[in-house]
Amino acid sequence: MFRRFALKSALLTFLSPLLFSATFAAAAPWLPFGPDGGDARKFAIDPHDHTHLYLGTANGWIYETHNSGANWRRLSRVGKRDDLVIDNIVVDPSDPKHLIAGAWVGSDGGLFITYDGGATWTSQAEMRGQSVRSLTSAPSDPKIIVAGTLKGVYRSTDGGRRWRLISPPDSTEIHEVESVAIDPKDPNIVYAGTWHLPWKTVDAGENWDSIKQGIIDDSDVFSIIIDPNSPKVVYASACSGIYKSEDAGTQFHKIQGIPSTARRTRVLLQDPSNLDIVFAGTTEGLFRSTDAGKQWQRTTTPEIIINDVFVDPTDPHHVLLATDRGGILASDDGGDTFRSSNGGFSARQVATLKRDNLHPATIFVGVVNDKEWGGIFQSDNGGIDWAQRSEGLKGRDVFSLGQSPDGTMIAGTAHGIFRLDRDAAVWNQVEQTPEAIAADNAAVAPPEIRAAVSINRNQFAQRNNVKPSATHAAPHTTALKNSKGKAFQHPPLHKAAKPLPNSPAARKAKLLAAKKHTAAPSKRTKIVVVKKPQPVAPPVKELTATAAPKPHFFDGSVFAITTSDQTLLAATSAGLLASSDQGVSWKPAGPPDSAEWRYLASAKNNVVAASLHGVQFSPDSGADWSPIRMPEKITLVTATAVEPSGEIWVGGPEGIFVSSDAGNTWTTPKNLFTNSVTSIYYDDATNRILVTAVGSGSAAFMVQLPQKTVTYTDTGWNLRFVRPVGDHLVAATFFDGIVIQPKMMSGSAPKPETAAR
């Protein structure tokens, strides 16, 4: 209730129009509002206030809470980037407004320092570009700080202002330092865990000793902790298990009791109120020992991937977990049970949005990369509050959403089409059509070898992270990049093989081919089609009925869905599909030799469909199609739209192009010279085109038709797309969920904002 009131107050505060021309101009940033959850990485406590915590994320943001994690708010974005993984935060005990954050993305990253409690950050020059994987301060002298990077171990003796390398330069052993720990009594004693065993120095880096006795060779050391009362007791977690030493690292012994599948223990933590209680956050849940590591008990389900654990030093019953996909989990019974505690925290990758045509205040969004914690979320008040509506999707990524003429919601996923009937609670997968089954019997689809693609989640899965699941495909990168060269994500890019030449069943066989491929199991992989074995009829007993055949579910990827007149159309990895019965059944449509469809848009009876390198147009709701000559300057299609007049809009890395003569000529609207286009959308309520583009930073463009007058507003966010919802605009960011325009107007829709420069 408080969040809803706060948003409405903020939106109504900005009723006065902001003036700017078609070039970039500042405006009030749009307001983030979920859906809550996503990847949470690291906790840090204010030493002077146990209810005040900081939270690092995988998208460059640092959050904070002043009520022990009950609610969170965005504090600031470190480095003004949305790709930095904030795995380490150190708070100065002598000055809680002095914080140091260690960040990384691949081999890049850095150290960032603030002296105003996180309002502003500066990049530390000596560590600029360093991939900082670990960071800690000395308990006996907080001005001494040690950082582990891909290049080695660095040390500061002045609170982070200056740094020097204390591991041997160009060492072949002490590099890729994933964990560091400092002796609680002697700050010259430093432990460093690398991607290949641990090391120790007792003289602040002058000399280093390998401390691998008892540890399985080639173990990645993720976490090292030292007992604050007995510094000779050292715990270390590695990919091969958890180890304990009682002689300051001279000899380790492996701790038993944790399943081998959960041995990727990312974090170890002793309960500050009872040091015999040790928590182990693993890639298969939370384990707890109450006898200093002798016995362990798993207290969560194994599906939870844990990045960090926090125990309140004043209340050991209050435990927080930072997890992948599920965000923050909280316990008030010492870790026996957990609940979601994500109020205000959103790190979702929203891939699609659909406003309910029958209830304009209701919005559905589809997210990717969050498995059972993701899927589809529903808001009944224009995007202010959200509830998960994913029952039946079984953790699938959702790439597209649509709605049938009777109001049934349609979801296009990484594996199949799903329907949600009005007032239903469960999504149901659509079965294959008789045409597809006939194609199955008539021909075997040609083997497809799909292009290797990169999955963005793997930037967080280098060595210290769990490997991506092979269950569902994640969105893949395209050629769209910002000014710094960073790629942004779109739904998966697959290169489809051409059908067998002169095969009458080729188009129908595509539907079969789609259900045979499996999801990408790793960062770069090839997906091949496996020939389906011929079904064997089960034996039939006398006087008994034969068993009902199992349903044949369509299992292809569905990238876009639209409705034209009474026809539903879907762009899929098996080609274009059409449904005339509210999405219950689907049949192949479109050109028989078309490539894999990626984008789809409609206005009245006009429909435009695009692959990565081609565009087709239909004037009759998809019954007939004709190819459109592509703009000469465009190398890749990344967005498309169509007007009721039949004008076609195409976007790509080179910009936006419009044709009113079926592709014979293409022009770019005046003052819309942008690049790396991420979305184009026709808003029929206001007869305008909405555009987002990486090349224009955080601007959202509005092109009023038919004059093509271009205006725009600065949203403050890098946007995937923008859509109208009632009397305001809602946009999807790349990694931060949904943001809402800070303005509600009395009219049916917001008017374009214009002004003198």
UniProtKB/TrEMBL annotation:
Signal peptide from the UniProt entry: 1-27
Source species, domain of life: Bacteria
Keywords: Signal
GO biological process: one example: xyloglucan metabolic process
PANTHER family on file: EXO-ALPHA-SIALIDASE, XYLOGLUCANASE (EUROFUNG)
Name this polypeptide is given: Photosynthesis system II assembly factor Ycf48/Hcf136-like domain-containing protein
Organism the protein comes from: Granulicella tundricola (strain ATCC BAA-1859 / DSM 23138 / MP5ACTX9)
